[in-house]
C-alpha cells in the first residue's frame, strides 16, 4: 500500500510540474498611445500577459477580448493586469487559457488602437 501511495505522489508531482511549465508569458510594451507589438500569433494554451509601461506618463492597463466583442461584458477578466501599470514599471495578468480564434488587445487608459491577437 505504501508503494502505491508513493507512486501516486510522484505521478501527481510530475503532473503538476508539467502543467506549471505549460504557462507561457507574453510580454507587451506600451508607449504613449500605442503598443509596440502591433499583432501577435500564439498557439492554443495558457498564458500570462506581462505589460510594461515605457514612459507613458501615467498608469496603463490591458484589455483582451474576442474580436468584434470589445464591450466590457466580453472582456477576458483574467487578462486584466492584477494592478495598474505605473509609469516605467510592469504588471502581469492572471493565467489566461486561449483557444483558437481572433482576439483584440488594447488599453483604454492610454488609449491605444485595438491590435490583433490570433490563436492557431
UniProtKB/TrEMBL annotation:
<keyword id="KW-0479">Metal-binding</keyword>
<feature type="domain" description="Blue (type 1) copper">
    <location>
        <begin position="27"/>
        <end position="108"/>
    </location>
</feature>
<dbReference type="InterPro" id="IPR008972">
    <property type="entry name" value="Cupredoxin"/>
</dbReference>
<feature type="signal peptide">
    <location>
        <begin position="1"/>
        <end position="20"/>
    </location>
</feature>
<dbReference type="InterPro" id="IPR000923">
    <property type="entry name" value="BlueCu_1"/>
</dbReference>
<keyword id="KW-0732">Signal</keyword>
<protein>
    <submittedName>
        <fullName>Cupredoxin_1 domain-containing protein</fullName>
    </submittedName>
</protein>
<dbReference type="Pfam" id="PF00127">
    <property type="entry name" value="Copper-bind"/>
</dbReference>
<keyword id="KW-0186">Copper</keyword>
